[in-house]
Predict the 3D structure of the following.
Amino acid sequence: MLFRVARVTAFYLALLGLWQLVVELDVWKPYVVPPPKEVWESFQRYWNNGLIQEAVRISMRRLFIGYSISLVIGMVIGMAAGTWKWVDETVGSLVLGLQSLPSITWLPLAVLWFGLNDKAIIFVVLMGSLFAIAISARSGVQNIPPLYRKAALTMGANRLQMARYVLLPAMLPAMAQGLKLGWSFAWRSLMAGELIFVSLGLGHLLNLGRELNKMSLVVAIMIVIVAIGLLVDFVIFGRLERWVQERWGYAT
Amino acid sequence: MSLALKPDGANEPQEAQPLLEMQGVTKHFLTKRHNTTALDQITLSVKKGEFVCVVGPSGCGKSTLLNVVAGLERPDEGQTLFAGRPVMRPSAERIVVFQEPALYPWLNVRANIELGLRIAGRKRSERRQLADRYIELVNLKRFAKAYMHELSGGMRQRVQLARALAVEPRMLLMDEPFAALDAQTRDVLQLELQDIWARTGATIVFVTHNVREAAILGDRVLVMTPAPGRLKNEISIGLPRPRSPDTHAVVDLAARIRQELEHDIYAVPKPEDHYVI
Protein backbone atom coordinates (compact mmCIF):
# COMPACT_ATOMS: atom_id res chain seq x y z
CA MET A 1 0.00 0.00 0.00
CA LEU A 2 2.72 2.40 1.03
CA PHE A 3 4.69 1.42 -2.02
CA ARG A 4 1.72 2.09 -4.27
CA VAL A 5 1.20 5.54 -2.77
CA ALA A 6 4.89 6.30 -3.24
CA ARG A 7 4.75 5.13 -6.85
CA VAL A 8 1.73 7.30 -7.68
CA THR A 9 3.25 10.31 -5.93
CA ALA A 10 6.51 9.84 -7.80
CA PHE A 11 4.64 9.71 -11.10
CA TYR A 12 2.87 13.02 -10.51
CA LEU A 13 6.02 14.69 -9.23
CA ALA A 14 7.80 13.56 -12.39
CA LEU A 15 4.98 14.98 -14.48
CA LEU A 16 5.25 18.27 -12.64
CA GLY A 17 9.03 18.22 -13.16
CA LEU A 18 8.58 17.66 -16.88
CA TRP A 19 6.17 20.56 -17.07
CA GLN A 20 8.67 22.79 -15.24
CA LEU A 21 11.41 21.59 -17.58
CA VAL A 22 9.42 22.58 -20.64
CA VAL A 23 8.91 26.01 -19.12
CA GLU A 24 12.63 26.33 -18.27
CA LEU A 25 13.64 25.46 -21.82
CA ASP A 26 11.59 28.47 -22.86
CA VAL A 27 10.27 26.84 -26.04
CA TRP A 28 6.90 28.54 -25.70
CA LYS A 29 6.02 31.87 -24.16
CA PRO A 30 4.70 31.79 -20.56
CA TYR A 31 1.25 32.92 -21.73
CA VAL A 32 1.08 29.88 -24.02
CA VAL A 33 2.38 27.34 -21.50
CA PRO A 34 1.97 28.84 -18.02
CA PRO A 35 4.57 27.70 -15.49
CA PRO A 36 3.37 25.56 -12.56
CA LYS A 37 4.13 28.37 -10.13
CA GLU A 38 1.79 30.79 -11.91
CA VAL A 39 -0.95 28.20 -12.08
CA TRP A 40 -0.57 27.61 -8.35
CA GLU A 41 -0.74 31.37 -7.72
CA SER A 42 -3.87 31.72 -9.83
CA PHE A 43 -5.43 28.83 -7.99
CA GLN A 44 -4.58 30.43 -4.64
CA ARG A 45 -5.95 33.80 -5.64
CA TYR A 46 -9.24 32.43 -6.87
CA TRP A 47 -9.46 30.06 -3.96
CA ASN A 48 -8.84 32.86 -1.44
CA ASN A 49 -11.48 35.13 -2.96
CA GLY A 50 -13.86 32.16 -2.88
CA LEU A 51 -14.65 32.08 -6.59
CA ILE A 52 -13.44 28.52 -7.11
CA GLN A 53 -15.47 27.14 -4.21
CA GLU A 54 -18.53 29.01 -5.43
CA ALA A 55 -18.02 27.71 -8.97
CA VAL A 56 -17.55 24.13 -7.74
CA ARG A 57 -20.67 24.42 -5.63
CA ILE A 58 -22.77 25.71 -8.52
CA SER A 59 -21.40 23.19 -11.01
CA MET A 60 -21.80 20.23 -8.68
CA ARG A 61 -25.35 21.22 -7.91
CA ARG A 62 -26.27 21.29 -11.61
CA LEU A 63 -24.44 18.04 -12.18
CA PHE A 64 -26.09 16.35 -9.24
CA ILE A 65 -29.63 17.42 -10.18
CA GLY A 66 -29.17 16.62 -13.87
CA TYR A 67 -27.57 13.26 -13.20
CA SER A 68 -30.17 12.25 -10.61
CA ILE A 69 -33.06 13.00 -12.96
CA SER A 70 -31.40 11.15 -15.81
CA LEU A 71 -30.72 8.22 -13.47
CA VAL A 72 -34.41 7.87 -12.69
CA ILE A 73 -35.65 8.40 -16.25
CA GLY A 74 -32.83 6.33 -17.73
CA MET A 75 -33.53 3.40 -15.44
CA VAL A 76 -37.23 3.48 -16.27
CA ILE A 77 -36.65 3.67 -20.03
CA GLY A 78 -33.88 1.08 -19.94
CA MET A 79 -35.77 -1.40 -17.78
CA ALA A 80 -38.90 -1.03 -19.90
CA ALA A 81 -36.93 -1.52 -23.11
CA GLY A 82 -35.17 -4.53 -21.63
CA THR A 83 -38.46 -6.07 -20.53
CA TRP A 84 -40.89 -5.42 -23.39
CA LYS A 85 -39.90 -5.90 -26.97
CA TRP A 86 -42.27 -3.27 -28.33
CA VAL A 87 -40.76 -0.61 -26.05
CA ASP A 88 -37.32 -1.64 -27.21
CA GLU A 89 -38.31 -1.34 -30.85
CA THR A 90 -39.87 2.10 -30.41
CA VAL A 91 -38.32 4.05 -27.54
CA GLY A 92 -35.21 1.88 -27.52
CA SER A 93 -34.29 2.67 -31.11
CA LEU A 94 -34.88 6.38 -30.48
CA VAL A 95 -32.54 6.27 -27.47
CA LEU A 96 -29.88 4.53 -29.52
CA GLY A 97 -30.18 7.20 -32.22
CA LEU A 98 -30.14 10.10 -29.80
CA GLN A 99 -27.04 8.75 -28.11
CA SER A 100 -24.97 9.75 -31.12
CA LEU A 101 -26.13 13.36 -30.72
CA PRO A 102 -23.72 15.46 -28.60
CA SER A 103 -25.88 16.76 -25.79
CA ILE A 104 -24.63 20.33 -26.19
CA THR A 105 -26.66 20.55 -29.40
CA TRP A 106 -29.73 20.69 -27.15
CA LEU A 107 -28.56 24.00 -25.66
CA PRO A 108 -30.22 26.40 -28.12
CA LEU A 109 -33.54 24.63 -27.69
CA ALA A 110 -33.09 24.34 -23.95
CA VAL A 111 -32.48 28.07 -23.63
CA LEU A 112 -35.57 28.69 -25.72
CA TRP A 113 -37.70 26.34 -23.61
CA PHE A 114 -36.40 27.08 -20.13
CA GLY A 115 -34.81 30.52 -20.50
CA LEU A 116 -31.28 31.59 -19.71
CA ASN A 117 -31.07 29.87 -16.36
CA ASP A 118 -29.98 26.77 -14.48
CA LYS A 119 -32.81 24.69 -15.89
CA ALA A 120 -31.41 24.92 -19.40
CA ILE A 121 -27.99 23.73 -18.27
CA ILE A 122 -29.49 20.97 -16.15
CA PHE A 123 -31.46 19.82 -19.18
CA VAL A 124 -28.27 19.57 -21.23
CA VAL A 125 -26.58 17.61 -18.44
CA LEU A 126 -29.59 15.30 -18.25
CA MET A 127 -29.54 14.66 -21.98
CA GLY A 128 -25.82 14.01 -21.75
CA SER A 129 -26.07 11.12 -19.32
CA LEU A 130 -29.59 9.82 -19.99
CA PHE A 131 -28.82 7.58 -22.93
CA ALA A 132 -25.73 5.94 -21.52
CA ILE A 133 -27.71 5.08 -18.40
CA ALA A 134 -30.76 3.87 -20.33
CA ILE A 135 -28.67 1.65 -22.61
CA SER A 136 -26.82 0.07 -19.72
CA ALA A 137 -30.08 -0.44 -17.79
CA ARG A 138 -31.51 -2.18 -20.82
CA SER A 139 -28.61 -4.58 -21.15
CA GLY A 140 -28.59 -4.94 -17.37
CA VAL A 141 -32.14 -6.24 -17.38
CA GLN A 142 -31.56 -8.47 -20.38
CA ASN A 143 -28.50 -10.07 -18.83
CA ILE A 144 -30.18 -11.12 -15.61
CA PRO A 145 -29.96 -14.92 -15.36
CA PRO A 146 -33.51 -16.29 -15.89
CA LEU A 147 -33.03 -18.44 -12.81
CA TYR A 148 -32.98 -15.32 -10.60
CA ARG A 149 -36.48 -14.50 -11.77
CA LYS A 150 -37.72 -18.07 -11.53
CA ALA A 151 -36.46 -18.41 -7.97
CA ALA A 152 -38.27 -15.22 -6.93
CA LEU A 153 -41.42 -16.30 -8.79
CA THR A 154 -41.54 -19.62 -7.03
CA MET A 155 -41.30 -17.76 -3.71
CA GLY A 156 -44.44 -15.92 -4.77
CA ALA A 157 -42.91 -12.52 -5.59
CA ASN A 158 -45.16 -9.96 -7.26
CA ARG A 159 -43.90 -7.49 -9.87
CA LEU A 160 -42.88 -4.84 -7.38
CA GLN A 161 -41.04 -7.29 -5.15
CA MET A 162 -39.37 -8.78 -8.20
CA ALA A 163 -38.08 -5.35 -9.27
CA ARG A 164 -36.99 -4.32 -5.81
CA TYR A 165 -35.43 -7.49 -4.45
CA VAL A 166 -34.15 -9.11 -7.63
CA LEU A 167 -34.01 -7.01 -10.80
CA LEU A 168 -32.45 -3.81 -9.45
CA PRO A 169 -29.62 -5.47 -7.52
CA ALA A 170 -29.07 -8.06 -10.25
CA MET A 171 -28.57 -5.24 -12.79
CA LEU A 172 -25.71 -3.64 -10.90
CA PRO A 173 -22.73 -5.48 -12.39
CA ALA A 174 -23.85 -4.64 -15.91
CA MET A 175 -24.75 -1.09 -14.90
CA ALA A 176 -21.61 -0.12 -13.00
CA GLN A 177 -19.89 0.85 -16.26
CA GLY A 178 -22.93 2.64 -17.63
CA LEU A 179 -23.43 4.70 -14.48
CA LYS A 180 -19.82 5.81 -14.67
CA LEU A 181 -20.06 6.56 -18.37
CA GLY A 182 -23.24 8.56 -17.76
CA TRP A 183 -21.45 10.53 -15.09
CA SER A 184 -18.55 11.44 -17.36
CA PHE A 185 -20.95 12.40 -20.16
CA ALA A 186 -22.81 14.58 -17.68
CA TRP A 187 -19.53 16.30 -16.74
CA ARG A 188 -18.64 16.98 -20.35
CA SER A 189 -22.07 18.32 -21.13
CA LEU A 190 -21.95 20.57 -18.12
CA MET A 191 -18.56 22.02 -19.06
CA ALA A 192 -19.60 22.56 -22.66
CA GLY A 193 -22.79 24.22 -21.51
CA GLU A 194 -21.06 26.46 -19.01
CA LEU A 195 -18.40 27.45 -21.53
CA ILE A 196 -20.89 28.50 -24.17
CA PHE A 197 -23.58 29.93 -22.04
CA VAL A 198 -21.96 31.99 -19.32
CA SER A 199 -23.54 31.64 -15.92
CA LEU A 200 -21.07 31.02 -13.12
CA GLY A 201 -19.82 27.51 -12.50
CA LEU A 202 -16.42 26.05 -13.31
CA GLY A 203 -16.89 26.35 -17.07
CA HIS A 204 -17.59 30.01 -16.64
CA LEU A 205 -14.46 30.50 -14.59
CA LEU A 206 -12.48 28.74 -17.27
CA ASN A 207 -13.97 31.00 -19.89
CA LEU A 208 -13.10 33.98 -17.73
CA GLY A 209 -9.46 32.89 -17.86
CA ARG A 210 -9.70 32.73 -21.63
CA GLU A 211 -11.19 36.20 -21.88
CA LEU A 212 -8.56 37.67 -19.56
CA ASN A 213 -5.90 35.82 -21.56
CA LYS A 214 -4.89 34.25 -18.30
CA MET A 215 -3.88 30.70 -19.18
CA SER A 216 -2.70 30.04 -15.64
CA LEU A 217 -6.32 30.31 -14.49
CA VAL A 218 -7.50 28.09 -17.34
CA VAL A 219 -5.03 25.38 -16.38
CA ALA A 220 -5.84 25.75 -12.69
CA ILE A 221 -9.53 25.17 -13.41
CA MET A 222 -8.71 22.21 -15.65
CA ILE A 223 -6.79 20.66 -12.77
CA VAL A 224 -9.69 21.29 -10.41
CA ILE A 225 -12.04 19.52 -12.86
CA VAL A 226 -9.72 16.55 -13.11
CA ALA A 227 -9.36 16.40 -9.34
CA ILE A 228 -13.12 16.38 -8.82
CA GLY A 229 -13.51 13.72 -11.49
CA LEU A 230 -10.95 11.48 -9.81
CA LEU A 231 -12.48 12.05 -6.40
CA VAL A 232 -16.01 11.14 -7.52
CA ASP A 233 -14.68 8.18 -9.44
CA PHE A 234 -12.83 6.90 -6.43
CA VAL A 235 -15.46 7.59 -3.81
CA ILE A 236 -18.63 6.57 -5.66
CA PHE A 237 -17.96 4.49 -8.75
CA GLY A 238 -14.77 2.88 -7.49
CA ARG A 239 -16.63 1.79 -4.40
CA LEU A 240 -19.53 0.44 -6.45
CA GLU A 241 -17.19 -1.52 -8.69
CA ARG A 242 -15.26 -2.94 -5.77
CA TRP A 243 -18.53 -3.93 -4.11
CA VAL A 244 -19.72 -5.74 -7.23
CA GLN A 245 -16.39 -7.53 -7.62
CA GLU A 246 -16.41 -8.62 -4.04
CA ARG A 247 -19.99 -9.83 -3.90
CA TRP A 248 -20.10 -11.52 -7.25
CA GLY A 249 -16.69 -13.02 -6.65
CA TYR A 250 -14.99 -11.46 -9.67
CA ALA A 251 -12.08 -10.22 -7.57
CA THR A 252 -9.00 -12.41 -7.51
CA MET B 1 -32.39 -35.88 17.28
CA SER B 2 -34.96 -33.18 17.86
CA LEU B 3 -38.40 -33.73 16.53
CA ALA B 4 -39.58 -30.28 17.44
CA LEU B 5 -40.16 -29.31 13.82
CA LYS B 6 -42.47 -32.16 13.05
CA PRO B 7 -46.13 -31.27 12.89
CA ASP B 8 -48.69 -33.75 14.15
CA GLY B 9 -49.41 -36.63 11.89
CA ALA B 10 -46.84 -35.73 9.27
CA ASN B 11 -45.23 -38.61 7.38
CA GLU B 12 -48.07 -40.87 8.49
CA PRO B 13 -50.05 -42.31 5.64
CA GLN B 14 -53.29 -40.41 5.36
CA GLU B 15 -56.43 -41.47 3.67
CA ALA B 16 -57.70 -37.93 3.24
CA GLN B 17 -57.82 -36.01 -0.01
CA PRO B 18 -54.41 -35.91 -1.74
CA LEU B 19 -52.41 -32.69 -1.52
CA LEU B 20 -51.57 -32.75 -5.20
CA GLU B 21 -53.64 -34.21 -7.99
CA MET B 22 -52.87 -34.11 -11.71
CA GLN B 23 -55.47 -35.31 -14.17
CA GLY B 24 -54.67 -35.83 -17.83
CA VAL B 25 -52.04 -33.09 -17.91
CA THR B 26 -50.60 -32.62 -21.38
CA LYS B 27 -48.03 -30.13 -22.56
CA HIS B 28 -46.56 -29.66 -26.03
CA PHE B 29 -43.56 -27.62 -27.01
CA LEU B 30 -43.50 -26.19 -30.49
CA THR B 31 -40.23 -25.12 -31.96
CA LYS B 32 -39.49 -24.43 -35.62
CA ARG B 33 -39.07 -28.04 -36.62
CA HIS B 34 -40.14 -30.11 -33.66
CA ASN B 35 -43.38 -30.73 -31.97
CA THR B 36 -42.44 -32.35 -28.69
CA THR B 37 -44.98 -33.74 -26.31
CA ALA B 38 -43.26 -33.13 -23.00
CA LEU B 39 -46.19 -34.39 -20.96
CA ASP B 40 -48.75 -36.82 -22.27
CA GLN B 41 -51.86 -37.42 -20.18
CA ILE B 42 -50.07 -37.34 -16.84
CA THR B 43 -52.26 -38.45 -13.98
CA LEU B 44 -50.87 -38.73 -10.49
CA SER B 45 -51.52 -37.82 -6.90
CA VAL B 46 -49.32 -37.04 -3.94
CA LYS B 47 -50.45 -37.26 -0.33
CA LYS B 48 -49.42 -34.92 2.43
CA GLY B 49 -46.09 -35.92 3.96
CA GLU B 50 -45.14 -38.20 1.09
CA PHE B 51 -41.73 -38.29 -0.56
CA VAL B 52 -42.31 -39.00 -4.24
CA CYS B 53 -39.50 -39.37 -6.76
CA VAL B 54 -40.02 -38.94 -10.49
CA VAL B 55 -37.26 -40.70 -12.36
CA GLY B 56 -36.53 -40.63 -16.06
CA PRO B 57 -33.82 -39.85 -18.60
CA SER B 58 -32.91 -36.30 -19.61
CA GLY B 59 -35.54 -34.73 -21.79
CA CYS B 60 -38.35 -37.01 -20.66
CA GLY B 61 -40.40 -34.06 -19.45
CA LYS B 62 -39.91 -34.49 -15.72
CA SER B 63 -38.74 -30.90 -15.24
CA THR B 64 -41.76 -29.72 -17.20
CA LEU B 65 -43.91 -31.77 -14.86
CA LEU B 66 -42.38 -29.99 -11.90
CA ASN B 67 -42.77 -26.57 -13.53
CA VAL B 68 -46.45 -27.25 -14.13
CA VAL B 69 -46.94 -28.19 -10.49
CA ALA B 70 -45.00 -25.08 -9.47
CA GLY B 71 -47.19 -22.92 -11.67
CA LEU B 72 -44.21 -21.71 -13.70
CA GLU B 73 -45.71 -23.30 -16.82
CA ARG B 74 -49.29 -23.76 -17.94
CA PRO B 75 -50.32 -27.10 -19.39
CA ASP B 76 -52.20 -27.33 -22.69
CA GLU B 77 -54.70 -29.82 -21.35
CA GLY B 78 -55.69 -31.35 -18.06
CA GLN B 79 -55.94 -30.13 -14.56
CA THR B 80 -53.54 -29.70 -11.67
CA LEU B 81 -55.21 -29.44 -8.29
CA PHE B 82 -53.27 -28.39 -5.22
CA ALA B 83 -55.14 -28.82 -1.95
CA GLY B 84 -58.28 -29.08 -4.05
CA ARG B 85 -57.74 -25.82 -5.95
CA PRO B 86 -56.43 -25.47 -9.51
CA VAL B 87 -52.85 -24.25 -9.86
CA MET B 88 -52.90 -20.93 -11.70
CA ARG B 89 -49.62 -19.27 -10.82
CA PRO B 90 -46.48 -19.79 -8.75
CA SER B 91 -46.95 -19.59 -5.02
CA ALA B 92 -44.82 -19.89 -1.90
CA GLU B 93 -46.97 -22.91 -1.03
CA ARG B 94 -45.03 -24.87 -3.63
CA ILE B 95 -41.37 -23.90 -3.69
CA VAL B 96 -38.93 -25.16 -6.30
CA VAL B 97 -35.35 -26.10 -5.46
CA PHE B 98 -33.46 -25.85 -8.75
CA GLN B 99 -30.56 -27.89 -10.08
CA GLU B 100 -28.41 -24.79 -10.39
CA PRO B 101 -28.15 -22.85 -7.16
CA ALA B 102 -30.69 -20.07 -7.75
CA LEU B 103 -29.15 -17.84 -5.11
CA TYR B 104 -28.47 -14.13 -5.12
CA PRO B 105 -24.78 -13.17 -5.03
CA TRP B 106 -25.42 -9.76 -3.48
CA LEU B 107 -27.03 -11.31 -0.39
CA ASN B 108 -25.25 -13.38 2.22
CA VAL B 109 -26.52 -16.80 3.29
CA ARG B 110 -28.83 -15.40 5.95
CA ALA B 111 -30.24 -12.69 3.68
CA ASN B 112 -30.84 -15.20 0.89
CA ILE B 113 -32.80 -17.39 3.26
CA GLU B 114 -34.70 -14.40 4.60
CA LEU B 115 -35.68 -13.20 1.14
CA GLY B 116 -38.53 -15.66 0.76
CA LEU B 117 -39.85 -14.56 4.14
CA ARG B 118 -39.48 -10.92 3.15
CA ILE B 119 -41.54 -11.60 0.03
CA ALA B 120 -44.12 -13.30 2.22
CA GLY B 121 -44.25 -10.11 4.32
CA ARG B 122 -43.04 -11.67 7.57
CA LYS B 123 -41.90 -9.44 10.39
CA ARG B 124 -38.22 -8.84 11.01
CA SER B 125 -38.04 -10.79 14.26
CA GLU B 126 -39.89 -13.71 12.71
CA ARG B 127 -37.54 -13.68 9.73
CA ARG B 128 -34.50 -13.82 11.95
CA GLN B 129 -35.90 -16.64 14.01
CA LEU B 130 -36.93 -18.80 11.05
CA ALA B 131 -33.71 -18.13 9.18
CA ASP B 132 -31.69 -19.15 12.24
CA ARG B 133 -33.67 -22.33 12.63
CA TYR B 134 -33.21 -23.46 9.04
CA ILE B 135 -29.59 -22.36 8.81
CA GLU B 136 -28.99 -24.70 11.69
CA LEU B 137 -31.08 -27.45 10.13
CA VAL B 138 -28.88 -27.52 7.03
CA ASN B 139 -25.68 -27.22 9.09
CA LEU B 140 -24.57 -23.84 7.79
CA LYS B 141 -24.36 -21.93 11.05
CA ARG B 142 -20.71 -21.07 10.54
CA PHE B 143 -21.46 -19.69 7.07
CA ALA B 144 -24.46 -17.50 7.85
CA LYS B 145 -22.60 -14.37 6.79
CA ALA B 146 -20.80 -15.87 3.80
CA TYR B 147 -21.53 -14.85 0.21
CA MET B 148 -22.38 -17.32 -2.53
CA HIS B 149 -19.05 -17.36 -4.32
CA GLU B 150 -17.42 -18.35 -1.05
CA LEU B 151 -19.50 -21.55 -0.78
CA SER B 152 -19.01 -24.96 -2.34
CA GLY B 153 -21.67 -26.47 -4.62
CA GLY B 154 -23.03 -28.63 -1.82
CA MET B 155 -23.31 -25.68 0.55
CA ARG B 156 -25.13 -23.64 -2.07
CA GLN B 157 -27.71 -26.37 -2.46
CA ARG B 158 -28.12 -26.43 1.30
CA VAL B 159 -28.77 -22.69 1.25
CA GLN B 160 -31.37 -23.20 -1.46
CA LEU B 161 -33.00 -25.95 0.56
CA ALA B 162 -33.02 -23.82 3.70
CA ARG B 163 -34.50 -20.88 1.81
CA ALA B 164 -37.26 -23.11 0.49
CA LEU B 165 -37.97 -24.68 3.87
CA ALA B 166 -37.92 -21.36 5.74
CA VAL B 167 -41.16 -20.17 4.16
CA GLU B 168 -42.69 -23.45 5.34
CA PRO B 169 -44.23 -24.43 2.02
CA ARG B 170 -46.84 -27.13 1.82
CA MET B 171 -44.85 -28.88 -0.88
CA LEU B 172 -41.22 -28.90 -1.88
CA LEU B 173 -40.47 -29.42 -5.57
CA MET B 174 -36.90 -30.50 -6.13
CA ASP B 175 -35.57 -30.43 -9.68
CA GLU B 176 -32.45 -32.62 -9.75
CA PRO B 177 -30.95 -30.61 -6.92
CA PHE B 178 -27.95 -32.88 -6.44
CA ALA B 179 -27.20 -33.65 -10.08
CA ALA B 180 -24.38 -31.15 -10.40
CA LEU B 181 -22.61 -32.24 -7.20
CA ASP B 182 -19.75 -34.67 -6.76
CA ALA B 183 -20.66 -38.18 -5.62
CA GLN B 184 -19.50 -37.80 -2.01
CA THR B 185 -21.37 -34.56 -1.47
CA ARG B 186 -24.44 -36.08 -3.06
CA ASP B 187 -24.35 -39.04 -0.65
CA VAL B 188 -24.14 -36.70 2.31
CA LEU B 189 -26.96 -34.50 1.09
CA GLN B 190 -29.19 -37.49 0.34
CA LEU B 191 -28.81 -38.58 3.95
CA GLU B 192 -29.39 -35.07 5.22
CA LEU B 193 -32.45 -34.63 3.08
CA GLN B 194 -33.98 -37.81 4.49
CA ASP B 195 -33.28 -36.51 7.96
CA ILE B 196 -34.76 -33.10 7.18
CA TRP B 197 -37.80 -34.72 5.63
CA ALA B 198 -38.31 -36.85 8.74
CA ARG B 199 -37.92 -33.86 11.04
CA THR B 200 -40.03 -31.35 9.16
CA GLY B 201 -42.75 -33.60 7.79
CA ALA B 202 -42.38 -31.91 4.41
CA THR B 203 -44.16 -33.21 1.32
CA ILE B 204 -41.56 -33.61 -1.41
CA VAL B 205 -41.71 -34.26 -5.14
CA PHE B 206 -38.17 -34.98 -6.21
CA VAL B 207 -37.19 -35.21 -9.87
CA THR B 208 -34.03 -37.06 -10.84
CA HIS B 209 -32.41 -39.06 -13.63
CA ASN B 210 -30.41 -41.04 -11.09
CA VAL B 211 -32.19 -44.35 -10.34
CA ARG B 212 -30.14 -44.98 -7.21
CA GLU B 213 -31.07 -41.59 -5.87
CA ALA B 214 -34.74 -42.31 -6.49
CA ALA B 215 -34.46 -45.64 -4.67
CA ILE B 216 -32.75 -44.01 -1.68
CA LEU B 217 -35.12 -41.10 -1.29
CA GLY B 218 -38.60 -42.05 -2.41
CA ASP B 219 -41.59 -43.58 -0.67
CA ARG B 220 -42.81 -44.04 -4.19
CA VAL B 221 -40.95 -43.82 -7.47
CA LEU B 222 -42.78 -42.76 -10.61
CA VAL B 223 -41.00 -43.96 -13.71
CA MET B 224 -41.25 -41.56 -16.62
CA THR B 225 -40.40 -42.23 -20.25
CA PRO B 226 -39.65 -39.69 -22.97
CA ALA B 227 -41.15 -38.68 -26.29
CA PRO B 228 -43.97 -38.44 -25.41
CA GLY B 229 -43.46 -37.88 -21.68
CA ARG B 230 -45.54 -40.53 -19.94
CA LEU B 231 -45.69 -42.12 -16.56
CA LYS B 232 -44.91 -45.74 -17.22
CA ASN B 233 -44.94 -47.37 -13.84
CA GLU B 234 -45.01 -46.74 -10.15
CA ILE B 235 -42.86 -48.51 -7.57
CA SER B 236 -43.56 -48.36 -3.87
CA ILE B 237 -40.53 -48.51 -1.60
CA GLY B 238 -41.05 -49.70 1.93
CA LEU B 239 -37.42 -49.84 3.00
CA PRO B 240 -36.54 -48.45 6.44
CA ARG B 241 -34.86 -45.07 6.64
CA PRO B 242 -32.36 -43.60 6.59
CA ARG B 243 -31.26 -45.54 3.53
CA SER B 244 -27.66 -45.52 2.47
CA PRO B 245 -26.70 -45.92 -1.18
CA ASP B 246 -24.90 -49.25 -0.86
CA THR B 247 -27.36 -51.54 0.88
CA HIS B 248 -28.45 -54.55 -1.15
CA ALA B 249 -32.06 -53.59 -1.02
CA VAL B 250 -31.36 -50.16 -2.49
CA VAL B 251 -29.09 -51.55 -5.17
CA ASP B 252 -31.70 -54.15 -6.13
CA LEU B 253 -34.41 -51.55 -6.32
CA ALA B 254 -32.25 -49.28 -8.41
CA ALA B 255 -31.67 -52.16 -10.81
CA ARG B 256 -35.40 -52.72 -11.05
CA ILE B 257 -36.08 -49.09 -11.81
CA ARG B 258 -33.33 -49.12 -14.40
CA GLN B 259 -34.91 -52.13 -16.09
CA GLU B 260 -38.18 -50.27 -16.28
CA LEU B 261 -36.42 -47.40 -17.97
CA GLU B 262 -34.00 -49.16 -20.24
CA HIS B 263 -36.44 -50.45 -22.76
CA ASP B 264 -37.66 -46.96 -23.44
CA ILE B 265 -34.36 -45.14 -23.36
CA TYR B 266 -33.04 -47.22 -26.21
CA ALA B 267 -36.26 -47.32 -28.15
CA VAL B 268 -36.14 -45.21 -31.28
CA PRO B 269 -39.16 -42.95 -31.42
CA LYS B 270 -41.18 -43.09 -34.60
CA PRO B 271 -40.44 -39.93 -36.57
CA GLU B 272 -44.06 -39.00 -37.18
CA ASP B 273 -44.61 -38.86 -33.42
CA HIS B 274 -42.72 -35.68 -32.93
CA TYR B 275 -41.65 -34.19 -36.20
CA VAL B 276 -43.88 -31.77 -38.00
CA ILE B 277 -43.44 -32.47 -41.68
The longest strand of chain B covers residues 35-46.
